[in-house]
Write a structure and sequence with these properties.
Number of strands: 8
Radius of gyration: 18 Å
Strand content: 15-25%
Largest sheet: 8 strands, mixed
CATH superfamily: Glutaredoxin
Shape: globular
Structural class: alpha+beta
Strand order of the largest sheet: 1-8-7-4-5-6-2-3
Number of helices: 5
Number of domains: 1
CATH class: Alpha Beta
Oligomer: single chain
Helix content: 25-40%
Length: 178
């Protein structure tokens, strides 16, 4: 009887733990969420602490990718994001990886350890942009077109090598030859 009592007392904790980890499960790219969100503010700091605002007119497609060096799924995904930036840069895709870490040194160290060299160091230490996009988990990616409209938001990992993700990016950057 004591076994069952202990088991049923631990059930709520089990479900809470399961709920906490559910949003960071891998996304195969087939479920990119189409959204019609309104206006937003996207500001972030560079490694020197200088604040920047998002300028989508420079690119056919911009991906704001929210991550952190302490987020396990993020660590696995970042080398793939670096490869995606290299692959699609000529088509007009700009990936802006916005870290929720508190200092640029952590991000630069991570980049060096994982040979990431196509991505910039951007921080959202006060988490204002993270909150403006109503992000609930890490990693998360928000795709924005050249008019500044949010066209897609995905919470969780994206398989950047998936054919559906490739098709999505190529369609959104189809005005560019490559």
């Amino acid at each position: 009887m004591q076994y069952f009592t202990r088991f049923f007392r631990s059930l709520p904790m089990f479900f809470m733990a399961l709920f906490c980890f559910f949003p960071v499960m891998a996304n195969d790219g087939a479920t990119i969420i189409q959204t019609k969100e309104g206006s937003f503010t996207a500001t972030y700091k560079d490694e020197s602490g200088v604040e920047h605002s998002l300028n989508t007119t420079m690119n056919n497609l911009t991906a704001l990718h929210f991550w952190a060096t302490w987020c396990i799924p993020c660590l696995k995904e970042m080398p793939k994001i670096d490869a995606a930036q290299k692959k699609y840069a000529a088509r007009g895709l700009k990936i802006i990886p916005i870290s929720l870490d508190y200092n640029a040194e952590s991000v630069k160290k991570f980049y060096a350890e994982h040979k990431i060299n196509a991505l910039g160091v951007w921080l959202d230490t006060d988490k204002v942009t993270f909150q403006n996009f109503k992000i609930k988990s890490l990693p998360s990616t928000v795709f924005i077109d050249s008019y500044g409209k949010v066209i897609s938001k995905t919470e969780g990992e994206i398989n950047w090598e998936n054919s559906k993700v490739d098709e999505f990016i190529r369609y959104r950057t189809s005005g560019v030859s490559n």
